[in-house]
Batch of 4 targets.
Target 1
Amino acid sequence: MLENGRLMDFYDNYSPYMEIDLMKMEDGYPDTYSGNKCPHLYRCPSCLEDKVVFIKE
């Protein structure tokens, strides 16, 4: 699996420039803001499967 960065950076063209804590409140995961977790997107280069992995900040 290869790490592709924060999941929220892939939402739209302006997402990478938005405030991180603001995006955590709207990312659809209930405990990313309060639990100090950051969802990152991982992709397998051979089968192209995507997986979200929560990284502790």
Note: The chain is about 10% helix and 35% strand.
Target 2
Amino acid sequence: MNISISQPPPIRLTPRQITYYALNNTLPAYDSNYSFAVRIANQYGKLSKLIARILTVAILSMAIVRILESQLWELTGIPSLEKILLIILLSIFTIEYLGRLWSAPESCSDLAEESDDVREHETDHHYRFHYVISLLGIIDLLVILSILYNITSVDPNSWPNYVVVLGLFKLSRYIPGIEIVGAVVKKERQILTASLLCLGLLVVILSTALYLAERNAQPEAFKNIPTALWWGIVTMTTTGYGDIIPVTSIGRILGGVAMLGGIAMLAIPAGILASGFAEELRYREQIYNWEIISNLELFHDLDSSCIADITRHLRSIVLPKNTIVFKKNSSPNAIYFIADGAVEVQIYPRPPSPIILRKGDVFGEAGLLENRKRNASVKTISATRLMALDIHDFHRLANDHASLKSKIESINLSRKT
């Protein structure tokens, strides 16, 4: 199996696009084209990762500086260390904010290429304003102002000094788990709101009932309904501080009902979030698989129904470095798409340079089409995630979609020639 891979020319981005990609690890104008997105990641991925690590360390350092405060002198023996660190952090976050503000127009993915200067100016203003009023944009600005106040303030305990802790929300840009939590809560907000509303109604009802039951027995503990509400919240959330407890028989019965009701009501949001997480991860996996398949050059001309059928039948395989995917002369069992990582095709006698297939490439099609044993071995050269389409699913899809079979045959023929 002779495979020749030509390196495409590098993609030329404007300084503004490079800045946007370095800060966001994405470029919406190119993300819809998988091959372009991969090439941009290969060119600027290391820069984006470096910026992300610097900002992550800066965010964590900012929180540590604010928490330790004067203890920094005791730990290091450098009396001015706190202000030195704050000046460094102020410089980093100011450069980041200005960079995001400057590159904000590049977040527009539907800007027409023939836009005139007036249209471009209006678009620039719109997207910059959108960043400034966004939640993370406001947090970026508040963090800068708070650090500046920390440096110039003579009172280290004033509340503006502590606004910097909001900067921990900035980690959501670099930790996918936080972003997924937000997506799940947003998607399930109606059900979560309903369950929390029911919990609030039960707290009010049971707290009022307990106040009526306990006000004569414990006039100091249950002075009014707001005091009883504190008991209701503590009890129904199963916290149980024990600072206010019922002593009457009716009160204890109500307390037991509140405990059981609290457990039941808190279990509902937990179940909703668990199923929401599973559904969100499954959805993202399907979208990821769809993007890889639909943007492979092999499948550019296939209709959406064919790509959807392929995506549904794919199974994910994660392999560590130096793992044999299949050996020469083994029976063909699947065709493989590289979702992440790289593999080496080992042909004997070995060619002058190793044959490397990377993210977005396909291999293993020859054995399936020609119904013969593998004529090469394939080994991972890094941690690799493959998407496999089993031989039975492949032949069934090839029968249902003639265009898929002709595409696979064309790539097999091109590799032979």
Note: The longest strand covers residues 334-340.
Target 3
Amino acid sequence: MDKQATPDYLAYLVRLWREGEGVWRSTLENPHTGERQAFADVEALLGFLREQTDEPAPNWADDWGNFGE
């Protein structure tokens, strides 16, 4: 996405479904254009949304470097 043209408003229809042993798949649909994008997992979906909003990924590590374990 062009960093100079980052919009102030985004709208998507989000569809999520579980496949197999708990793997979540998703699609986003732009209601204005009908364009759809598919994602293999939730991390890919969140990465796309972060990219669209110029948001950095959160640092989930605690003070000891553990990631919610």
Note: The chain has a mean pLDDT of 83.
Target 4
Amino acid sequence: MSEDNVRPAAGESAAKPSARAAHKEPASFEEAVARLERLVARMESGAEDLDAMVKSFEEGQSLVKFCGEKLSAIERKVEILARRADGTVGAEPFDDIPPPDRG
């Protein structure tokens, strides 16, 4: 897929990576994933020169870090409903739940 077939997200410039200013932080996880997909498509197209590929790679690394941090934050917020010994149901923090027994 060529770079011409990769549409920028709303509010994102269609400029080539070498012409882009400093990378702004995505507004959401979904925006970061969409930007990553466009970067991969451009890089796989072979349309970029080496300098542009390096800049795309650096932006991709930044987006991957952003996504990882977002996922970690969400994981900490997730709660699991659990039935207690007395029969009541309550929320338990995700981090405190041991992994299921695979034995």
Note: The first strand starts at residue 79 and ends at 83.
